[in-house]
Amino acid sequence: MTQTPFLSIVAPCHNEEEGLREFCRRAVAAARSVAGDAFELILVDDGSSDGTWEIISDLAADVPEVLGIRLLRNHGHQLASTAGLAASRGERVLLIDADLQDPPELLLMMMPIMERGADVVYGQRTRREGETWFKLASASLFYRALSRLASVTIPRDTGDFRLMRRRVVDILLAMPERDRFIRGMVSWIGGRQVALPYERDARFAGTTKYPLRKMINFALDAITSFSTTPLRIATWLGVVSAGVAIALLVYTFVRWLEGETVTGWSSIMVAVSVFSAIQLICIGIIGEYLGRLVQESKKRPMFMIETVRRGSEQAELPAVFSEMSASDRRAALDAVFASGEPPRSQKTSRIG
């Protein structure tokens, strides 16, 4: 059994071939500054269609601390992050994206805060470079709406960029939901969580992996995972609609008693359209929650790992790795690492 690393850095990657070597160089330098050689860098290829996996394989061969994980298909950012966290062994775990918008060097500022007793140190964005006004406005609206709707306090203007203690990671991995919203789940866990304000950089290379469609789906996952307020809104919409309908019925009956005929095809159609829209909205809200319950009830694996790369060797983890207990995952990982540390290569150009 190999020695447990002090620090694990987990980075999900999807079509990041242009900036991955630079990310590895900076992440390795930051990790060595705080942990010496007692760290691991876990790069998770989330079903990339470019040369991301080939670069990860090269980096794993060149840098002994790099562990490459290739998922069987694209699972999405949250599940790719979960796969990396499940494979991590460090006493402290840094979750960070590989696009270099979140600087790896902030690890040097996060670590002293954790030394003073924090369970989680999360990055809180004070400025976001290289993003459109629409992305900034929609993100601001999302975080403020979520803070009002969520049943737990989720800090505003934060992503998944955070340093966590092992116990927090183990609790996070024990949570079984498939539609995951990691930053909310970590907030739900509690403990002492401290913000580190920073200015978010523009992407080093490539394009965003969160177009509008994914942003909307992500927002729905976040709200339905941590709030039942939309269901209450649907209930109150129904109550208000029923009240309006009763008022219209009374008004119509009174006019009939007075011998006046109610006319106005347009007003009738407007009323029908309004009530139909409210009903469809309510059904849609209920359907979002019901659909998530159906997906959870199927108990499918959260993610599927195709292969694991360490040094010049490839290995496989059990097909049910995502469903294993913490102790079983550790045993499976120890089996992968049992062959000993790969020799340190003298080549450095591939991460330079």
From TrEMBL:
EC nos: 2.4.1.83
Pfam families: Glycos_transf_2
Top EC class, one word: transferase
MF (Gene Ontology): dolichyl-phosphate beta-D-mannosyltransferase activity
Alphabetized UniProt keyword annotations: Glycosyltransferase, Membrane, Transferase, Transmembrane, Transmembrane helix
Annotated localization: Membrane
Domain Glycosyltransferase 2-like: residue ranges: 8-169
Record's GO cellular component terms: plasma membrane
Alphabetical list of SUPFAM superfamilies matching this protein: Nucleotide-diphospho-sugar transferases
Bilayer disposition of the protein: Multi-pass membrane protein
Sequence intervals crossing the membrane: 233-254, 266-290
UniProt-recorded name of the protein: Dolichol-phosphate mannosyltransferase
Organism: Rhizobium pisi
Lineage of the organism: Bacteria, Pseudomonadati, Pseudomonadota, Alphaproteobacteria, Hyphomicrobiales
